[in-house]
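During the reporting period the student researcher (J.K.) took over the structure-prediction task from the postdoctoral fellow and processed the backlog of single-chain submissions. One of the processed entries is reproduced below for the supervisory committee.
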Amino acid sequence: MAVAGYPDAWAKAGRKLTKAVSRSDRDRFGGLVLDLIGRARFGQPAWSPRHQRLLDIGVGTATALAKEAPPDPELLAAAVALPWYDGALLSARAALIDLARPIGWAEAMVLAMAPAGARSMALAQSAYLRQLAALPPLLRAVVILERDQAAAGPPMGPSQPFDDNALALLAPGIPRKLLPPGGRPPGPTLAPPPPPVGTPIEAVDLVRKQVNEPFGSYQMTVDGDPGFAVDALELVYRVRWDVPPEEIRPVGRPTVNPGDTEAVRYDAPGWIVDRVTRDVYPFDLAGPTVESFVGARRVYPLPPGWLLEGRRPIPDGLATLVPAPAQAALAPAIQEATARYAALLATETWPDFLMAWQVGTETVRLLLAGGFTDPELLTRALSARPEPDETDGSGAARRASRLADAPAPERALAVANAQARATIETHLFGVLPQARRDELVALTPLAP
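J.K. obtained the following structure tokens:
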């Protein structure tokens, strides 16, 4: 007999699971589940066997988790909802981030566990394992359990249980009873990820190798060799010829493929260079597809302050990243940043602010370790954002030369910031970018 819709399906499938939550939390738990599933199903057709299968996977995952984990309603709701946002089950996380409303803890957990946008399969697996390895043990357990649940029934997509190599990376800290019994056949050893595109110079070198690729229906060119303008946008570089748009002209006649109704011409021809994969894509930089491309590949880290009991509001978690000795001195800056973060949580770009804050707080930690405690210096450290022409290539050496005779606190700030960015980018890419290595070589002699 067909189920009327997901509220009825959840009421039936989740009846036993709901009893794992305290009576006072049951209504909130059910509301979180229905909201997360409803957002994934927005605009989709009526309830189908595929939808029921996703629900069964999620309920099975949360039920297994509840046997060993505290009855946290947000954690369990995220476990139920994960299959609806997991690309390996042919779902998509985009539905969770396209509504202009502040993010809550249940959504944050799902985003942290769901894979980022599609890349090559081998690279996606390697990058996804790095993404999961940074999560708390119980969230890693959710993903392991979900993949096992998905493999126990009809195939749902490319999802596969984690092999022994992956489990060895993900298992630390997970309760033993939440791990698969016995052993798994070891999979092929994952190749190390390629070095990220670390500088605008590298991005331009990659573009030059593909500069003759067409843009839409047209091959485009410019006179002479005017060079390129490059700017960084999260995990990509945006590259264009450094000339006015009217100086970019087509070469020859357009190529129209079967099925095309007209020739496609780009208003602002340029390239997107994926810093993770090193792939180069011809793009119309004037269109909204650039933001869509970046958004699909954005990494959504778990916000700071994740606790199983006494969980604080997400904006307040920023303060947990600031070393305790600097809390009082940085109180005004923390308050200002928290207010801004709260506003950004209603947008898709909050991970970018969090990444910058992580760099700032790591810079503060390094300065404190070096004995620098001046509140003004620490406040500047929280917002230090050197431009690429000061950090990449020859720019780092020029900056080091300029700072050679600067006071010790100024030199310490530059070195600490470089070390902090190297640490955070290594976590992001899984390998230290060569640009950060070169910058450290140039600046480390300045350390007081």
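The committee noted the following: Residues 408-429 form the longest helix (22 residues).
J.K. will present the remaining backlog at the next meeting.
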